[in-house]
Specification:
two-stranded parallel ribbon; 2 strands; mainly alpha; 1% strand; 38 helices
Amino acid sequence: MRFLRSGFTRYTGTLNTGRLAGAFALGMLLGCGYANAAPASIAAPPSIADKTEQRKLYNQAQNAIRSGRYTEYRELLAELEHYPLKPYLEYNYISRRLSRLPAEDIAAFQRDYPGSYLADKLNRRWVEKLALQGKWADVVDQYQADNATTELTCYYLRGRITEGDKTAYSDVAEVWNVGHSQPKACDPLFANWMKQGGMTDAIAWQRFVKAMDSRHRSLARYVTKLMSPDTKALAELYDEVDRNPRALNDMARFGKQSADMQQIILHGLQRLSLRDAELANELWHRYDAQQLFADNARLETQRYIAVRLLRQGHTAETEALIKATPALNSEDLVEWLVRDALRNLDWHRVNKWIAMLPPKARASERWRYWQARALENTGGASEQITTLYQLVSQTRSFYGFLSADRLKVPYELVDKPATVDAVTRDQVATIGGVQRARELFILGKALDARREWYHTTRKLDEPQIIAAGKLAESWGWHRNGIQAMIQIRYWDDLELRFPLAYQEHVNTTAKDLSVAPHLLFAIARQESAFTADARSSAGALGLMQLLPSTAKQTAHRSGMSFSTYDLLEPATNIALGGRYLNQLLDQFDGNRILAAAAYNAGPNRVKQWLSKSKSASLPYDVWIETIPYRETRGYVQNVLSYSVIYGYRLGEAKPFITASEAGSSL
């Protein structure tokens, strides 16, 4: 196996927890050209023992604020001058007194911590409080457009109008004309704007359409009440077609030549194509002959119908549609047709549709690989096939590894760590937001830590982002190291992008189950990027993103005790995730392709895919490429690729696809 590796120096720098002074304060760092700033005098960081004591004092000060013991709070604050989270105490103290409008305290906080996460948060709360107390001149003065919510923007516009700036009325329509409901705080502004004649039928129609497209029907009904009778009649017709798109069969009702009527027809055709793409296609041709649709609207509607025809199994009709209108060609649509041809092992059609892809897409690793595979199966020139595989095999990717296997050559695993100079590294370590993020991370305040981190690092330049990523990795905050490389689009630092996180727990589970550790690493990297407290919208938790129900069943089968909270503990999560993965491997005869697909989409769904007539006899690479779910397709490709990379990181050369996986049909 061939590895390219150069310029590697492991970063072992430690974080200076002292607070910056003077010109090197956070405002200078983030708002006044940090890249060229030199640190002023930096207070010496406290010892470990001091840090433990400071955390104890910090908790006492927080309790004093909550209990209203402000004298005690101020005494404790004086002892925490160099503690990174001192601003959180000051913020909480001010927040308890906002109703008294402590303008001087707020101004001082903004001066001390300009541009910080807490300063921005305090500004938002301050503007809101001023508005609620009717201090409109102060609202206009304190409002910051780049730090505003919709609610604050409404207060700001209301303040301008109240203070006599009538030009603010011209900015209200943009806030009102959206496809979702706005905060109630905006209602007085909108009412005043409408009273002044700002509402028009055209604006009402635009918002009605946006609301319908966003499926906010109650908002759409409200907007119709603001329309003139003629426009309201059109909106009611739009609503009818949305509910029953087959109403378009009665073409006499939709004969009016107008832009609004065309919107109704096109919306109805798209809605109809979701249920009956064949009928939508038929009606499209009839309406296209009746109405003078704009060219872009015609193509958008035809593409929409074509994709639905494909999804409903009408491949021939889709191909006929594209043949009649070549301009319909788009990457997404043609990819559907290529995958349909692959699913049927129709290699001539694969060649045909790859040739129809846009040039940039056709030159991608994915489609170069499939062009080579198609040429292999249709008698293509061996030189062309080899050239295509060679081009792709030079990449560290799913298709690169597939191509290397076809050529029987080593994988290209470029490992070139991102470099950063010591001065930049040390400067980044002393940024207040970075220090606060680290301390919050240590204290287990994960959400606040992430907020501080992202608020700070979004303002850094590329060398500073690299330094921040290496700092985060050295603390064990692996996701932030990974994110840093994504942020600067640098892909060759494999230590940062593929950390050996929680290696002790991974090795213990791998040994207990005889599951390869590189596979466990690959799953955890794909699932959570090693975020121990990760929570998905579906309710999956922890490093290996287990649903509590799945974890409970797995624990029961394995004789392990279990509580949902335990899933946020790395050792428990990896142990249960490894056991669930092992169950899937057993269920699918050790096939990692199927086990990975089942880990993402569920074993029952994978069995359904396998049970389809032709799917059971497909080559493994075709089966992966034609997985119906885009997310699962990408998931399987990543897990297999990450397994190779983690084999390298562990010093063990691993095959991309095992002999048994390559030799079996799926």
